[in-house]
User: Fold this.
Amino acid sequence: MPDEIKAKVIKAKSAKVDYTYAVGRRKTATARVRLFAKDGDLIVNGMPAGQYFPTKRSHLAYLEPFKGTSTMGKFSFSAKVEGSGKAGQVDAVIHGIARALAKFDASAYRSLLKKQGLLTRDPREKERRKVGKGGKARRTKQSPKR
Assistant:
């Protein structure tokens, strides 16, 4: 009996899954993206992407890499995102999808994605607060009038 269980476990582990994996980042958000070369569901954190990113701006934004490469309906993705807020997360997903597409077929998609600026990681982060600045990074304290 235990030998049969071992055989089942080994078979389950060796199952071939064909996807392209990439990591996208923005601010403190990190998106781990799996890109599948078939039409299917677009999933973010176990939910449909349209439901996870309900605003119109973000709904149109995560489809940007597919529109730029004319691959709408040819790919599906699954992403796990953590950190930051929704705006940072949607940008991290976009970065991850673009990197996965470039990894999938560099000769076809890399130059198109590069022109759109989707492969470049946005380096802007929150500026650290400084001592004696009144709580913010650049704000100066109010000077006394007299």
In short: The first helix runs from residue 2 to 13.
